Amino acid sequence: MNRRLSPIFTLVVVLSLLFSCSKDDPRPTTGKLRGQVGDALTASALKDVKVIVFNADDNAPTEHSLITDTNGNFEINLPPGNYFLKFYKQGYQAVPSPGMDAVPFSIEVGGTNDQSTQMLPSENMNTGFISGVVGTPAGVGGALVVAEDLANNRAFSSVSSHDGRYTIYNVPVGSYKVKAYLKGYSSNGVDASATLNGETTNVTIALSASASGQLSGTIRNLATGNKDVDISLVHPLTRETIPGLSTQSSNLAYTIANIPDGSYIARATFKNDERVMDPDRIAKFGEPVVTFNGNNWLQLTFDITGSITIGSPTNEATTTKPIDASSTTPTFSWTAYSSTSDYVIEVTDASTGAVVWGGFDRSGSLPVKNIVIPSSQRSIQFNADGSAAITSLIPGRVYRWRVFASKNDQGSATGWVLISASEDQRGLFKVAE
Prior knowledge:
Layout: H1 7-24, E1 31-39, E2 50-55, E3 60-67, E4 73-78, E5 81-88, E6 105-107, E7 112-114, E8 117-119, E9 127-133, E10 144-149, E11 154-159, E12 165-172, E13 174-181, E14 186-187, E15 190-194, E16 199-200, E17 207-208, E18 213-222, E19 230-234, E20 241-248, E21 253-259, E22 262-268, E23 275-277, H2 279-285, E24 289-292, E25 297-299, E26 302-306, E27 323-325, E28 331-333, E29 342-349, E30 355-358, E31 360-361, E32 368-369, E33 373-374, E34 379-381, E35 398-408, E36 416-421, E37 428-431
């Protein structure tokens, strides 16, 4: 006998099967971020490292602040999106180091992204740390918090997490004015002292939503095709970008609004995009500085040009993780740049910013090239001319190198002009032990 199933019974069976499948094979909605933090010199794991997770689309800290475990590991599930990380620990330099920007990465549903890193011991001796909250009564996240010692032209910094809490590590013993910098907010300065091996707590920084300065202008491409670039305002001592005070030009024009009072370095095309700021202007006059006091509006034109492509040793364009170099006297190589009369190389200690070889002598009224490399030459070994501050690079230490293209110009007071340079965030390497 042929029987037909009732519609209601059929619906129940179908729903039961669907429910059973969804229980047995749930679809993921997040991806995994994981990594391990180690000592760059000893390779030993570092526990209790503070890891702040930022949303790369708006540069705001997420609610996911992490602490590494006893094996230096951290792990968390995150919604799909673009992120970047900052790492802090007492006794160690922050990652990325001041003057470098974190490179964003993506989290995909069901995927795993490894963001392991290594930290160098801090160069600062006899230090403590300062902690507190930004914003009252509710905390404000994402602010650059800076302990400034203007008398000694130095400053130390951190970033407030999503709840406004911050800790500034490795602060030398002394007296400081602690301020917070964030788009749209004005900050009071709070007096605080760092004590030896101690934590100065409860340094609360009040904010008011009253910042109204504005910087606008245009991008002028020199001897290269037009290209829109990034523009940022940078703290003059820590060399860190002020949160929120960055933008991308559109049709070669830009505007940054709601700027707090203060003096800032103005930078363009800091990202790896085959463009650099006019190196001749910076070599002879320094980076442009803009000062805001009240609701003043300023204008600034950035001159940019094409960058020199470097070969090795260098980090990849997509990360600020240094590449390992096997030699303490590595050979640096680059691609030829047209119309060049000669090249200048500059090697700096990434932790201190001190030039260890080459570069320019800026002690006089005009800069002088410390090294001149013929235009026919596109590689050179470290300290080839015997003029370096150290005869060989230190194993375990991170260095950064750049190369500049120079062209003879009798119309210039120096007799030359710099026509290009390599990218700001390339040339990072660590000498293997």
